Amino acid sequence: MHRFGIIWLAFVLVLTGCSSGASEPQADTKKKLSEAEEKEEMTIDTFVASQDAKGMLTDGPGKYGGDRYDLAKVKAEIDQFPDDLTAEEYFNRLVFLVAEDYRPIMKTIDEFDTDINFREVEAPKGPQEAKLQERNVVILLDASGSMKEKVDGGVKMDLAKRAVTRFASQLPEGTNVSLQVYGHKGSNQEKDKPLSCEGIEEVYPLAQYDQSKFAKSLNSFQAAGWTPLAASMKAAKKTLEQEASSDAVNVVYVVSDGEETCGGNPAQAAQELQQSNMKAVVNIIGFDVDDAGARALKEVARSGGGEYVTVNTEEQLQQYWTREQLRLYKAWRKWGWDTRGSMMRSFNDKMDEARKTICCSSSGELAVTYKQEEARLREAKNYLVETHDLPARIAVDLNSFIYQRWSSIFKHGKKRFEEKAEEIRRNKDHLEKEINAIRDMNLEKYDPGS
């Protein structure tokens, strides 16, 4: 008996749940229908115009608002107005007939994009750039047999290593550096040519500069063999393709004392490197190079979108890095001026766009729409006063209601403009701080007096 009672109770609960689930949607539907019917039943006799701007801007269009406007039909409706209404009741009827639909405009205002998109000035071609993106520097160091020769100041290989160390240690914080050496295997004898021409090695994998590890990598090789310049640039391209992000800034510096001796085409390799997705700039430092070698290396730099410079001593090599430092200092100072100028022009354009879209411009969509509504309200009001022989005080009150409606909408539009304008100004201030920070960081790094 007890078990039967539990089963029966469960059965009743299931039926009750089913019944409740079925009846609720019907109630919702009935409620929705009643709301729709209530809206449909809203007539010129029952409509009350909103007193606040939010309501005015979200009520939707009048019976003859927007493209449906027909003055003859409006006048026909006015002809049916009773003669004993108050000014407010007359105004409600006029708004019911000719109000504009501000909802699309308000949606545009609410969704107005306050971001400042400006043309970024191209960053100086060096190991740093404009947007704090990934920065990669690849140093290709010639270790062919001729680098064992002596010049003023010592052995070319030793001098080049010291200059490369100084350069790498002065790279901006966050820059990745790769040191790749070529020609250091075998010898410069014919029998060792295949080994030497294939002897390209990344002794310091692409990463941020570490003094002890970088020094260790430089001590891991000596000058020995041939000059596979083209193959070394292909290796650099492969490194960047595997390790660098797609939007990284990539710069290649080649330190060499002569032209290609392994049968490759270094100018073509430099061009491919520059025109690849990596868009790497190839700069060549010719160290104690003869005329033929200088011409060849100059063509390589031109094909790689970079520059060529000849140095013959350690002092000149160090002077090159100093000149490069001064060039980048001046370039970053100019970048700061130009980028801020570009951003400020875009800021002013964005503020003008906000005025036209939201408020305060006679050609703005909100102003044009209300001018149209106001003209139609006054046209309808004038006809009403003339045909119904209304007292002067009614006409005065109607003018006042029309003005108050315009004033409320205008003030709301101005308030929304100020809110959006403040967002734009905040974005401008943020961008200005970023630009100044990037400029100052690079000026400090490349300050020739430091």
Automatic annotation (TrEMBL):
This is Ca-activated chloride channel family protein. Residues 136-326 form the VWFA domain. It comes from the Bacteria. PROSITE patterns: PROKAR_LIPOPROTEIN, VWFA. It comes from Desmospora activa DSM 45169. InterPro entries: VWF_A (IPR002035), vWFA_dom_sf (IPR036465). Keywords: Coiled coil, Signal. Residues 1-22 form the signal peptide.
